[in-house]
Amino acid sequence: MTTPSAATFTALQVMQDAPVIPVIVLNDVAHAVPMARALVAGGVRMLEVTLRTPQALACIEAIARAVPEAVVGAGTVRSRADAQAAANAGARFAVSPGYTSAVGQACRDVGLALLPGVATGSEIMMAQEDGFTELKFFPAMQAGGPAMLKAWSGPFFDVRFCPTGGVSLQNAADFLALPNVVCVGGSWLVPADAMAAGDWARITQLAADTQGLRR
Ligand code: 3PG
User: Fold this and answer.
1) Which DSSP string do the residues of 71-131 spell out, in sequence order?
2) Would you say the pTM of this structure is higher than 0.90?
């Protein structure tokens, strides 16, 4: 697949690139580049680095600079300031755990494709009112799992989802079999112990293991 320029990246393109978007928590800037290279080597290049640690923005910056084969995005974007900081660091897309119009507008203003997080019908309707039709279902297992997505496919027939939260290699196929699911998100590709040990081969293997998932 050709990589579009940063300005033209859409949420749908982010979702369609691979069956799984890894949700990454980085505590050490030194881990960022080898971790990103390990995922790319396993065929996963859309990387969501969560803004949950003091090092997250520096990690996004390092990956954007040193791993051009990866497309780094920012997760846990909850405010206009987060969106601005993510764009400044070189993020190409944003993911939010919930949705507000302010965050939606902020991402548009800084040119970041956004996957807004939703867990209820009202939140889907708010995101749709603002023009967002590709959404993250979060926290997916806790909020109803595949059955919830099946129920939503009736009234929200024009929305596509990336379920995230409690998704694993074991249950990912149940989500990916649904017509309104484009990809899933999950942290299992980047275990904290593998990162701490510098076990990049394990991360490459975990990424490669997701390539067989059907979309
Ligand atoms: C998150 O934002 O924490 C993601 O949903 C990751 O959830 P997981 O650790 O259950 O994959």
Assistant:
1) EEEEES--SHHHHHHHHHHT-SEEE-SS--HHHHHHHHHHT-EEE-EE-SHHHHHHHHHTT
2) yes
Query: Does residue 48 carry a catalytic annotation?
Result: yes
Tell me the CA–centroid distance for residue 119 and ligand 1, in Å.
14
pLDDT for the residue numbered 214: 77
- Residue with CA closest to ligand 1 atom 1: 165
Ligand 1 pocket member 166 (CB < 6 A): yes
Domain 11-206 class, CATH top level: alpha beta
What's the pLDDT tens digit per position in 64-86? 999 999 999 999 999 999 999 99
The CA-based angle 114-120-122, given to 5 degrees, is: 85
